[in-house]
Amino acid sequence: MAIIGSIGTKTANHVYSQQQIKQIVQAIFDYPERKWERLLPVFDHAKIEKRQFAVDKEWLMQDHRFPERNELYIQHALSDSLDAIDACLNDPVFLKEKVPFEAIDMLIFVSSTGIATPSIDARIMNARPFRSDMRRMPLWGLGCAGGQWGWHMQKIGLLHIPIKLALSYVVRCAA
């Protein structure tokens, strides 16, 4: 039987209310009033109170090319993933004792918001003392359903592959 034994999270450095994001979007995009009348109610009805960003709103309102945005994705995806993984493996609320990196049999990485070569999961492997024979499963391009698919693949891995301990993490870091 597969269980969730611990959870680790990392909150982004910049948190804005849905109303603040609505104002930022209006400042960034030059749409006719009729289009705004159709689009803006989405912000009011989305049931989202706050959104997290790796960068501040001033940065968001400037024009940035893909290489710069993607480099920020790599930096934040790596550092935030490491923070969340460390929190997950060391959380005294969920765990009786810390889980050593070497105990992890499978690492599942889910993201749809950036491109990295080497991949973020490969960078994670080099940043922490995971075993070299640990299985890796990067999942990319699945959008909002990616996290659920990652958990599904983790369950399959735990049930059908001879592994005992899997670690999955999801990165949502759009810039």
Automatic annotation (TrEMBL):
InterPro entries: FAE1_typ3_polyketide_synth, Thiolase-like. Residues 70-148 form the FAE domain. It comes from the Bacteria. It holds the Pfam family FAE1_CUT1_RppA. This is FAE domain-containing protein. The lineage of its organism: Bacteria, Bacillati, Bacillota, Bacilli, Bacillales.
